[in-house]
């Protein structure tokens, strides 16, 4: 159960990070 929860948190973190990167890339260009 713990591994599943940490994986979900990891996926959410990657999604948030990707969103921030895409926003920064969009503002940069």
Percent helix, as a range, is over 70%
H-E order: H
Provide the residue-averaged pLDDT: 86
Radius of gyration: 13 Å
**How many helical elements?**
1
Annotation, overall tally of beta strands: 0
What can you tell me about this protein's structure?
The chain has 29 residues and is mostly helical. It is rod-shaped, with a radius of gyration of 13 Å. The model has no long low-confidence stretch (mean pLDDT 86). The protein has one helix and no strands. The termini are far apart. The protein has one domain.
Task: Pick out its properties.
single chain, 29 residues, RNA binding, mainly alpha, 1 helix, ANTAR, 93% helix, WH-like_DNA-bd_sf, ANTAR domain-containing protein
Write the layout of secondary structure elements.
Elements: H1 2-28
Briefly characterize the structure:
This protein is mostly helical and 29 residues long. 93% of the residues lie in helices and 0% in strands. InterPro entries: ANTAR, WH-like_DNA-bd_sf.
